[in-house]
Fold:
Amino acid sequence: MKMITVSLIQEYYYCPLSVYIHLKNSEILTNSMIAGKISHEAIIGFEEIIKRNLWGLKGNLDIKEILNELYKDVPDYIDSIYQRYKEETIDGNFLVRFESLKEDLKFNSWLLAIKSQQMFKNGIIGSEAVDILFPPCLTEFKIENKEIGLIGKIDKIVIVDGVYYPIKIKTNLPPLKGVWESDAIQIAAYAFLMEQEFNKEIPVGFINYIKIGSKKTVLINTSLREKFTNVFNGLSSTLYNGKEPEAVQNINKCRACEYSNLCDYSISDIN
Structure:
């Protein structure tokens, strides 16, 4: 049985036809795929740097001093990632994206510096602050369910008092309220895999929108689980039956789609 990745679920929700084209041209590595891989690597490494730099701090430090200590190794780390990946993309905004990522991570460093200072004022030292700000977790955790053919790599699984919480890291902005529905459906997919893997109910997940330093809650209720099931069944039909699905009639999505040069669907057809 061919395995369906959780990332394909989000792509199918975006536009079923884009998944069909993707599957027929699986050798193509798009800019968004590369950007996603880079951003996740950068963010996981960023957290490890922050934990290492925070560990030895204590005392009466001001916000700027804490920020400088937390962030000092981050730019060089991001630059090293840029050097490794710059030849893999034809994206003309590749360097701009990296500079934007640096700014986003610096903003998150500010937030962590503010929280750290408050803890220092109350006698908490850096090593204790690390345990508070970064609870035990599994990173880049791969789970598969061969029975239904679903596989996913979860950005983070945070474990608090025996409860497991899936976390999806996103570099885009969230909607004005809540989370993007496609992100929520991905969380539901992760919850399904985790429940099978750990034999535990997963009632809640989170989307970490790093651009605004906000971790938004996703309630994994019956309605969301049904949406996941419907999307998964539609994606399964596309994968196993080979029937070409219809494109989503959305001019903005079509213009932004990286498969537009391989798609017969015309933007002019949209009323």
Remarks:
- Residues 94-121 form the longest helix (28 residues).
- The mean pLDDT is 86.
- The radius of gyration is 20 Å.
